[in-house]
Amino acid sequence: xxxxxxxxxxxxxxxxxxxxKLYGVLKFDQKQKVWLFVLKDVNNIVKCFKSLExxxxxxxxxxx
Length: 64
Known about the structure:
The chain is an alpha+beta fold. Helices cover 19% and strands 48% of the residues. It is globular. 14% of the residues are buried.
C-alpha cells in the first residue's frame, strides 16, 4: 500500500507526497473557491472540491 502524506505549506497550498516523494500540490483557487490538484510529473491541473477533506479523500482513492 502506498503511503500518502499531506504537507501544509500554508493555508492555500499543500504538498501531496506518495511514499515520501512529491506527487503534486493542492492549491486553493480563491476565484473559483475550489482546491486544484497540480500533478508534478505531467503538470496537469485537476479541479477538485470546495472541501479540502473531500479533495484529500478523492486523491487517496485515486492512488490506492
